Amino acid sequence: MKTIHIGNVEIKQTAALAPMASVADKAYRLMCKEFGAAYLVSEMISSKGLCFGDKKTARLCEIEAPERPMALQLFGEEPAYMGKAAYLLNEYKPDIIDINMGCPVPKIAGNGSGSALMKTPETAFRIAKAVVENACCPVTVKLRAGWDESSVNAPELAKRLEQAGISAVAVHGRTRNQFYSGKADWDIIRRVKESVGIPVIGNGDVSSPLDCMAMYERAGCDLVMVGRGSYGRPWIFREINEYLEHGKLMPEISLEEKMSIMLRHARLLCSYKGEKQGMKEMRKNVAWYVKGLPGSARIRGESGNLSAYSDLERTAEIILTAGKS
Predict the structure, then answer these.
(1) What is the pLDDT of residues 127-154, one digit of tens each?
(2) pTM
(3) Are residues 155 and 107 in the same domain?
(4) What's the CATH code of the domain at 297?
(5) Which residues make beta-bridge pairs with 144?
(6) CA nearest neighbour of 193 among 147, 163, 154, 228
(7) Which positions are catalytic?
(8) Which DSSP string do the residues of 5-59 spell out, in sequence order?
(9) Is there a cis peptide before residue 79, judged by omega within 30 degrees of 0?
């Protein structure tokens, strides 16, 4: 299997898990890692929350050995806080520190951070430089194509960030104004690759092994990142690895294995969050796991009331029984 290097960090050239706030928590990341995700990125970590000693923020920085190689992702709009936060992250020994310059949600971009930094290249440069100067590991940046269709500036900004010392850049092929609608533009990822000498990670609309291979070929990127394509399908990484290594598409996963994986995910989530909170957060995952199954609309509705692991066990048993009839 081929590998790439981001700074001194070696990563298999298969597929990584994209950072996804309120989705890719520790349990989700570990599930994807078990199925072969090459690289993980944390949920967004507030630079100010870290600097002010917020306990919830600190918990987002914890890394377990099975998660490595893993990046901790910072967001913020002020270079001074971002630099200090990067210094504080060194305590957690991340393999990489990633800077979020791509989040489109109003509560992040509206404060001048996330994708809003694509409108202020000089501030983005100063943030990257501050993080690089304070980090004890390679630093990367996650971008979008641009703020809107009239300001697609990812290639120019990536080049400026390379000058600030970052070791790689990830590009989601949509503008901020697109959010997650329309089609990701993989050509912009290629343009970024052509503009810099550091590794480029492609992201956007990869939902199968064939998509992954197509992105490598069309975008010319060094690594592919899977986000929404992993919803309720952590085994997508196993499928991608099999296809890239052996050129084979795996058969459709069995209903029994799918339910077993869903229950494993729930147990992991409960072990980290406690059963009450874990099952509450599992509800959205259950909706993704059962998507496309007979009666999935009803099951999704019922999953909104899940409060105990035993409830999910019964749901899985009902699904399996229905699948045999």
Answers:
(1) 999 999 999 999 999 999 999 999 999 9
(2) 0.96
(3) yes
(4) 1.10.1200.80
(5) 172
(6) 154
(7) 103
(8) EETTEEEESSEEEPP-TTTS-HHHHHHHHHTT-S-EEEEEEEHHHHHTT-HHHHH
(9) no
